[in-house]
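step=encode ok
step=design start
structure_in=
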């Protein structure tokens, strides 16, 4: 049995790299997701610590809070979920008002730390 490179399984959660497709500011985005205790959390922003080579999710959006589709249950599929409604750009750059964050049920990310990877181009 081989392990898929884009999925890191640990005892408490599963990390899905760029597995959620969504529109933000008329641009298609591929977002990371964390599956934790049966809940899918879409990572909106990461806090990086380059000196330690680590990152942690700063803000997350529970996928159940927005209209979405399950696109694939195949662990090898690059995209697993699609968010149907466009997301405000402010959710990604930290400028969202409290009202917008509440509307999308955005909350602080779980206390998880992952390796820092170089950005893909």
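sequence_out=
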């Amino acid at each position: 049995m081989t392990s898929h490179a884009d999925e890191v399984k640990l005892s408490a959660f599963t990390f899905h790299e760029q597995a959620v497709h969504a529109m933000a500011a008329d641009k298609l985005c591929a977002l990371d997701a964390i599956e934790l205790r049966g809940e899918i959390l879409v990572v909106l922003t990461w806090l990086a610590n380059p000196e330690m080579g680590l990152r942690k999710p700063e803000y997350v959006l529970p996928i159940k809070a927005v209209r979405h589709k399950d696109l694939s249950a195949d662990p090898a599929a690059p995209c697993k979920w699609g968010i149907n409604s466009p997301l405000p750009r402010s959710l990604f750059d930290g400028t969202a008002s409290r009202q917008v964050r509440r509307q999308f049920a955005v909350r602080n990310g779980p206390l998880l730390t992952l390796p820092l990877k170089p950005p893909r181009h």
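step=design ok
step=annotate ok -> The chain has two helices and nine strands.
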